[in-house]
Amino acid sequence: MTTAHAPRTALRPAWSLTWLHTRYQFLETTRVPIAVLGNMLFPGLALLFFIVPQSAVADDPVAATAAVAQLGTFAIMSACMFTHGAGVAEDRAKPFDTYVRTLPARPAPRLAGRVLNGLLWAYLSLVPLVLAGVLLTAATLSPLQVLGAVAMVVGVAVPFTLLGLAIGYGLSVKAALAVVQATLFPLAFAGGLFMPPQFFPGWLDAVSQWLPSRAARDLVVQVTTGEPAGALALPVLIGWTLAFAALATWALRNDEGRRFH
């Protein structure tokens, strides 16, 4: 009887530690209000200034929904890359982080706490955008599309969380912040998150289809509007996810080896 229940009992401390790290990192993030406000308000303001005034887009249910989906993809990317890129690099520079990493607890709950914290902020960053889309445009979703959109948040967050972790564990604070900014915005522009790919010149459209941001955008738009995504979208997103996973693993192991051995 004791043996049968041992695995379940052993899991409890891990879940408890994961929740503890998630709560701690969430509170740490809220202590920088400007970062929180910037992450949550920018996509909604972009919708307000660039989409709502265009009645041809704002009053068309499909076009408005696609616009909200594109900006939502950017919001998720931004939340994940800043939380795990600049955030992890900043934590690594603190003496307390070094102390925590020398404790006998396994690193998995701490890493899981980071991922859950980033995912939570990704969902929160969508709230102002979705409210603006519902109240000020003709964007609409069926109940099934709502469920699909909620699930797609995780699908988009995974690769960009891994990219953020690779940057955060591989670079210093100043370098990580610069690299996140220099990576996020070009990926967003070239991925069709600010301007629909239909308006791209042919060469940019061809290049764009091989980017993770374009693949994520196309899949989110497909789920929310029913417009078919390109044949490359899913394989490209999976391929970049695997590449970012390998890069994040290398950066984490390199950091452990450099600082603790």
Automatic annotation (TrEMBL):
The keyword Transmembrane helix applies. This is ABC transporter. One of its GO terms (cellular component) is ATP-binding cassette (ABC) transporter complex. It is a multi-pass membrane protein. It is found in: Membrane. GO terms for biological process: response to antibiotic. PANTHER family: NODULATION PROTEIN J. Keywords: Antibiotic resistance, Membrane, Transmembrane, Transmembrane helix. Pfam families: ABC2_membrane (PF01061). Residues 18-221 form the ABC-2 type transporter transmembrane domain. GO terms for molecular function: ABC-type transporter activity. Its main location: membrane. The keyword tRNA processing does not apply. InterPro entries: ABC2_TM, ABC_2_transport, Nod_factor_ABC_transporter. It comes from the Bacteria. The chain crosses the membrane at residues 32-52, 64-84, 120-141, 147-168, 175-195, 232-252.
